[in-house]
Amino acid sequence: MNTSELQKVKQRYNIVGNCDGLNRAIDVALQVAPTDLSVLIVGESGVGKEIIPRIIHDNSPRRREKYFAINCGSIPEGTIDSELFGHEKGSFTGAIGESEGYFGVANKGTIFLDEVGELPLATQARLLRVLETGEYIRVGGQKIMKTDVRIVAATNVNMRKAISEGRFREDLYYRLNTIPIQIPPLRNRGEDIILLFRLFAMQMAEKYHLPKITLTDEARAIMLKYKWPGNVRQLKNITEQMSVLSENRVIDGEAIHKFIPEDAESTQLATLSTGGSHSFESEREILYKILYELRGNVNDLRREMNSLRKQIDATHSASVPSHDASLPSIISSGEDAGIEPSSRAATIVQDAVAEEISEPESLNLEDIGRQMVEKALERNGGNRKKAAKELGISDRTLYRRIKQYGLDK
């Protein structure tokens, strides 16, 4: 195919890039389009495999018939046979009517099976029969149905490995792989990376009325060296992030490292820094954090009681029971008793406080609490958030106490 014809196809399908591998894939797609041969498109996730079957269908004798793109990995195993081959009324719970399935509806047209490597083995056997004879049986049916469908499949898994592990039928692989088309990963497309970046940056600028972002030479070099494990999809996402979040519209080497890992050989997906927030890698870490915060709540409660006790001692030292000094050790013993630390501590503190004020001469605890809240609010100029922090309690607890003591009037 000459260059002008190739460029027309790229413009029609909004394909950006000039690398040899991409041009070869488009050329093979156009050559095989007039035939009914099965095609297997192989490439990593995010490289844009879905464009090739559309080119094949639109340039085939079936172009006026229906085209269906089906993601085999997104359909539950229990319903995929019904989705593809149809079912009879009453064949399973919920089958209130009969269904033709994709192979029935797409007769004379084209079906694109994306992620074909995710098909269950039983479904693979059905698909093999369709490829060999054009025949299939609906779920729950007995009548043999006929269909004339062109099948184009795509996968991002190592099919040879899947066959050796018994996850994919070898005979089906050879049926699908009549014409193989390999889509190159983005890291092997050279300057196409920069061309795609410019396209995505321009689209963002036009869509959201933003100044267009550009790259310095250093940033360009970093993008060309990065491995792009998410391929074109990842490049688009990162370009959109830069367009929205970058204050400086000229992206230099330092700025680009906020979106791309500094190690050029890294194959990790780029992540956006969230300003110090911690990303847990396991449930165990989350549990550790919860337990740590729970222990902190107990310590805060202990400090609050110590502060309260000191005020009681200063005001009415004669009325404080001598056993009160053991309160901190009693609070901490809740963990050894196999009781929830926070609830155990709260119960012990409540009992201890009740015991302290049970004497006739003891000061009313509500008066002390009101005084503490009043002083904290005065010291913080009425700022409730700061007052709650000083008292070691939550904003909600402080608000409740303010209402209780009538300090909101």
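^ that was protein a. below is b, sequence first then the tokens
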Amino acid sequence: MSDEELMHIALGVAQDALASDDVPVGAIIINKDGEIVATAHNERELHNDPTSHAEILALRRAAQQLGQWRLEDHTIVVTLEPCPMCAGAIAQSRISTVVFGAWDEKAGAVGSMWDLIRDPRSLYKAEVRGGVLEKECAQILKEFIQGVRKRD
């Protein structure tokens, strides 16, 4: 599947976060054969857990599914540029490729504010492809934020 097709799947997963009033970010992890190994959406509100970002949950589920923490030859596709916590976890998991949709100019750690995954000082580096279906990924976040502001 193409990056765009995979991002459409991640966007579908992101929609599921709305049921628990979580920020709609979705992540999927695929293996080298293009098979989906794990999916997750943000669950911070659902579990009152600041680490329950879509990427972290997807990494945990993939590692559990595969019975190993090393996710070499796997790709993570996420609707929003990973934050520093998630970028660090992605690097620690040895993910080979990171594909993301919307850029996060305030907290992005894969090219916007920082570039933890491709920093020359990093022990492990991954290929990064950002801006995939950027408008669609940004729109779901924008609509969510506007809805939250209307309630407040």
